[in-house]
Write a structure and sequence with these properties.
The chain has 319 residues and is α/β, with parallel strands linked by helices. It folds into two domains: 238 residues, Alpha-Beta Barrel (TIM Barrel); 68 residues, Up-down Bundle (Bacteriocin As-48, Chain A), CATH 1.20.225. It contains 15 helices and nine strands. The chain has an eight-stranded parallel β-barrel with strand order 1-2-4-5-6-7-8-9, surrounded by four helices. The structure holds flavin mononucleotide.
């Protein structure tokens, strides 16, 4: 089993990837999507989204990071993928799952699932352009407003030469509403020769077991669940290998939260704590202490004051 860390725009940026990959050696991370319209972006755009390009395309823990592109213009998608690879990307992932209205209105993300041929053509254009040694992968949902074309989309992705397919087991119309329909992915898994990765609504080790059983996929991708429980992948891995795994204590999580806050020193005070507060909003799903900390820092802006508050909570938690 491989465990991937999901791309999450506005959440799983370079700093978060760095922190998350110190807790678990994920098999791969994926950047937030880079939205491609017309033309090739300057290098700084790729480097902003994927600073790991400067360190061999890997996080400090040595975990490969694929650069994710979103768009529908074939020459631009191909040219941007090529540039990302020239800059050191170790893999390219293509986003066909984004539900955002602005993205969909411009024919990108999950809107493309309405035309399976377009999905095929985009992946094929990127695959034909980038160095054959660089994996090109696709991330899809079950469909736009139904899953009737799922197999057609998936077989098209395979035919286009992609090396892997990740399926978020919900349609675009489902949004993020539970449940995820893992069993729908079974037919894709049995039809395709390339690895199919199951994604969606995995919050606990037992969910991973059910997702893998229902979809018959071997590999999984974790998004919000990993943010809510930073050692979720460790728990899943231990469950699969029938080994013991000591759950991460709240005071240990607080060390990670502090590490994230510390990365915000150069961000204007008004926004500096945003990412930290956002992470706490995920953590409070699993850790009661996160709720208390969140309410005590939600109106704070000064990093030093927030940091002192986190430190106070850490001391209290360790008593
Ligand atoms: C805030 C947020 C941002 C996301 N950004 C991206 C993205 O940039 N690219 C992408 O392919 N999927 C993105 N997703 C979808 C996730 O990668 C994942 O497919 C989805 O959250 C379901 O997995 P989960 O239930 O484990 O979170 C995003 C999801 C959320 C909640």
């Amino acid at each position: 089993m491989r465990i991937m860390l999901a791309p999450m725009e506005g959440v799983l940026d370079f700093q978060m990837r760095k922190i998350m990959t110190t807790v678990f050696a994920y098999d791969r991370c994926v950047t937030e999507f880079i939205r491609v319209t017309n033309g090739v972006y300057p290098d700084k755009v790729f480097l902003k989204s994927c600073p790991e390009l400067l360190t061999g395309g890997k996080t400090d823990s040595g975990i490969p990071v694929y650069v994710q592109l979103l768009g529908s213009d074939l020459p631009s998608m191909a040219a941007n993928a090529k540039r990302a690879v020239e800059l050191g990307a170790v893999g390219i992932d293509i986003n066909f799952g984004c539900p955002a209205k602005t993205v969909n209105r411009h024919g990108g993300g999950s809107a493309l699932l309405r035309t399976p041929a377009a999905v095929h053509d985009i992946v094929a254009a990127v695959r034909e352009t980038v160095d054959p040694s660089i994996p090109v992968t696709a991330k899809i949902r079950l469909g736009f407003d139904h899953s009737d074309s799922l197999l057609e989309i998936a077989t098209g992705v395979e035919r286009s030469g992609a090396s892997e397919l990740c399926v978020h087991a919900r349609t675009r119309s489902d949004g993020y509403k539970p449940p995820a329909h893992w069993a729908e992915v079974k037919k894709v898994r049995s039809e395709l020769k390339i690895p199919v990765i199951i994604n969606g609504e995995i919050w606990r080790a037992a969910d991973a077991g059910n997702a893998r059983d229902d979809s018959e996929c071997i590999d999984i991708m974790l998004g919000r669940g990993a943010l809510a429980m930073p050692d979720l992948a460790n728990q899943i891995s231990a469950d699969v290998n029938s080994t013991e795994c000591q759950a991460l204590e709240w005071q240990e999580v607080l060390v990670l939260v502090e590490a994230l806050l510390a990365t915000a020193v150069n961000i204007p005070a008004k926004y500096a704590g945003n990412r930290t507060k956002q992470w706490l909003s995920y953590l409070l799903r699993q850790y009661p202490g996160a709720r208390e900390l969140f309410s005590s820092i939600k109106r704070l802006q000064e990093i030093d004051v927030m940091s002192a508050e986190i430190e106070r909570h850490r001391r209290l938690a360790s008593l």
